[in-house]
Amino acid sequence: MRITFFGASREVTGSCYLVETDRVKFLVDCGMFQGGRIAERRNFMPFHFAPRDIAFVLLTHAHIDHSGLLPKLVAEGFKGQVYTTAATNDLIRVLLPDSAHIQEMEAERAQRHHFTRRREDTQPVYTTEQALASLEQIAPQQYDTEVSPHPAVRCMFREAGHILGSAIIEIWLEENGKHTKLVCSGDLGQPGRPILRDPAIIEEADVLLVESTYGDRLHKDMDTTIEELVQVVNDTLHRKKGNVIIPAFAVGRTQELLYLFNDLTRQGRFHNLDIYVDSPMATEATRITMRHPELFDEEAIDLEAWRAKHLDQINLTFTASAVESMALNDIRGGAIILSASGMCDAGRIKHHLRHNIGRRENTVLITGFQAQGSLGRRLVDGANLVKIFGEEIPVRADVHTIGGLSAHADQAALLHWLAQFRKPPRHTFVVHGESSASEALAGHIEKMGWSVSLPALGEVFRM
User: Fold this and answer.
1) Do residues 327 and 451 share a domain?
2) 339 and 349 in contact (C-beta within 8 Å)?
3) 317 lies in which domain range?
4) Interatomic CA distance for residues 368 and 249, integer angstroms
5) Of 452, 462, 414, nearest in space to 430 by CA
6) Whole-model pTM?
7) What H or E segment, with its residue span, contains residue 445?
8) 414-423 per-position pLDDT tens digit
């Protein structure tokens, strides 16, 4: 067996792993690179393998850094099926066409305003038509049910607790009469977070790929995080009389924030909030989330029952049209605007930042990971001036980061999950983390007596 790492190697985007045996070649994830122009250029590069030779794809979850190049893969010759959970299937039917639409709009804007002549800025990686065509090859599966996508491969999707439909994938491979178990963690959620169940416990693997997004740090505890959220929102709305602008991932983070705003209203910590969800994709993702109550934890089920009886407690608006979105730019104070993309590099959030970051009474509330090179990362790092749509905008609004809401497990949670294995895997690969995070987690794993590696981009490991 060989594993080649074509993304999410000492970085957090572009998740893509090629697994080869003497009988089959398949991918785990086929994600888009995100985090600024240098990362985005890589999405236009040819695959380092022939898409037509790939028998099937196993998809851990719907986030674009894991699923976003599937349309390109299909357009360039992949004919197999993409196996994933039923909820992920629902989500990517919204996410992938939306990704294509955003690319087309950004390319059209660049052409119209002559921001650049570079190909990657003036053309989409794939079109909406290609995104829709790729959806025909999705094969949705149930959690905890074995499926055999090839005579020499069996796999099972287990709860990862990261976003709706996210999965740890257990894979059993047969080669030359021998059997090998490969486990891919996907993105693991932080235990005890709102809405979703905790990650499933896995007890054995021959080969393990484990994520390390926060492998070098601990999250703030939830009580501290909530106090911080309440203070920042109430201070901005009531003392400064400004707006709270929240770049939020359309899938996962938006729904978690809505959960918290409802729960804190139920507790009397917020009153009569005016919340605008300005992302068609987030709107649809919220609808999809509500169609899967079987994946909720008990607290989420109880809160939904309360919310259904108290619809007048929060003024919640899901904007649909571009006209409705633009009207939000006229609101001078008192609004909470959640919009995508979560790293501020695309979508409607760029318009809201353009109209709000220059005013001192406003707050930009960062609630998720910001990759190196992204506009969100520049704001977090304290930039005084940022470029949006080719225009230099001074940053006068407060930029506040709340780190405790991450959908990724922190170092302690990752190590706890690893400790549930009954014996060390033959080999563990630390992936999906910037170098410092991956190195820190790998160091702890090595202290456990495990064999561990940090694969580089394009590196091949033979088992």
Assistant:
1) no
2) yes
3) 222-405
4) 8
5) 452
6) 0.87
7) helix 435-447
8) 999 999 999 9
